[in-house]
Amino acid sequence: MKDVQGVHQLATYLTIQDPASQRLTWNKSPLSVLVIKKVQDTSVIQPFIDLVSWLIYDKQMVVSVEASVLEDVQLRNNTYFSPFRDKLCTFREGKWNIFRQSVPPVMAFHMGSLGFLAPFEFADFQEQVSNVLEGHAALTLRSRLRCIIMRKNSEPLDKKSHSSFLVLNEVVVDRGPSPYLSNIDLFLDGKHITTVQGDGLIVSTPTGSTAYAVAAGASMIHPSVPAIMVTPICPHSLSFRPIVVPAGVELKIMVSPDARNTAWVSFDGRHQQQLKIGDSLRVTMSVYPLPSICAHDQISDWFDSLAECLHWNVRKKQRQFDEYSDLIHSSSNDTIDSLDRSDQIDSEV
User: Fold this and answer.
1) Domain end residue (candidates: 264, 288, 312)
2) Per DSSP, what are the bridge partners of residue 206?
3) What are the CB-based long-range contacts (under 8 Å, 24+) for 58-63?
4) Is residue 4 situated within a structural domain?
5) Which of 335, 258, 304, 317 is nearest to 140 (CA)?
6) Helix, strand or coil for residue 181?
7) Strand order in the sheet with 89-91
8) What b/e readout covers 36-48, taking b as 16+ CB neighbours within 10 angstroms?
């Protein structure tokens, strides 16, 4: 009986969630929305005005924007923006911690040069946004990394908001401006795994596996896979390959005691800080993923992005032989091979 119960429990633990089961549901229709506009890009000004005015007047929603948007000279001078400018609410990064814990669903439009995380086209935004507001959409729960800096012989700096970071793509530890190789100790759940000697180390989420990590030679991981990718940057060892570890582990990264130089750490390319000898960085998977709204579904969106943005496995297809030419080609090759073998035998005799 115990064996049967154990098998049942194991089967429960190994149950894999179907990606198609992750659907967007609202307890009630949303009344407010935050619109993030790409900065320093004049091509998005008119689409931004069209979207915001439609949300305010047609959908009767409260729209918030970054404070810098209202300071944009080109927007301020736009006659189509003036009528609803005073209706917008504003926030400033650092004062509103809306992305530090539970995150609202994110709907991203492809209006840039790559758009790997932006599956929606803007041309029919009214229909697509309406579908989302009505709850007709699939979700991808994109995991994030929680990173805490700990200084040598001191308490963790997690008590201060600027020393704890949530990362969607990757945290990078590198040698910075130093001419020497980095010398970084890597621990996994307290066990020393290896010492990184090279330009540095990338610790990425599955979402970040298609960013800096893949450029450094890592594999691409679907964002629904619960894992952490560890990728060396230009390691001074041919056998040092990227590894994938379980999502539930804690990574500790330290500057080695015998290192010639310090290291530098950045979080999604921002908030760069110096790690001195004895300092450490603790990295775990956050319990607060980022819910990303799918244009179609988890699988289609991801592979469409691989094909469109990274041109994954793009090549000219090999042409097929027709039956007659295939037979002639094979016969000709067999004849040539026979003659070659005969000539070789004659020369040896």
Assistant:
1) 288
2) none
3) 58/126, 59/129, 59/133, 61/30, 61/31, 61/32, 61/33, 62/31, 62/32, 62/33, 62/89, 63/32, 63/33, 63/34, 63/35, 63/87, 63/88, 63/89
4) no
5) 304
6) coil
7) 32-34, 62-66, 89-91
8) ebeeeeeebbebb
Burial class (CB in 10 A: 0-12, 13-18, 19+), 145: buried
The number of domains in the chain is 2
- Picking from 255, 257, 223, 227, the residue whose alpha carbon sits closest to that of residue 242 is 227
Q: How far apart are CA 107 and CA 120, in angstroms?
A: 8
CB 169 within 8 A of CB 205: yes
Per residue of the chain (349 residues), what is the pLDDT tens digit? 445 555 455 454 455 666 667 888 898 989 999 999 988 788 899 999 999 999 999 999 999 999 888 888 888 889 999 999 999 998 766 555 667 788 899 999 988 777 778 999 999 999 999 999 999 999 999 999 999 999 887 655 545 444 789 999 999 999 999 999 999 999 999 999 999 999 999 999 999 999 999 999 999 999 999 999 999 999 999 999 999 999 999 999 999 999 999 999 999 999 999 999 989 999 999 999 999 999 999 999 999 999 988 889 988 888 888 765 665 666 556 555 554 555 554 555 4
Residue ending a domain, among 288, 317, 333, is 288
Q: How far is CA 158 from CA 146, 150, 247, 316, in A?
A: 10, 8, 21, 52
Q: Which position has the token pair 């073998």?
A: 341
Q: Residue written as tokens 């198609």?
A: 20
Task: Give the CATH number for residue 183.
Answer: 2.60.200.30
In this structure, is the dihedral angle defined by the CA atoms of residues 38, 40, 44 and 48, taken in order, positive or negative? Answer: positive
Whether residues 107 and 228 fall in one domain? no
Single pTM value for the model: 0.82
Tokens found for residue 253: 């990264």
What is the torsion angle, in degrees rounded to the nearest 10, for the CA atoms of residue 173, residue 177, residue 183 and residue 187? -10
140 close to 289: Cβ distance less than 8 angstroms = no
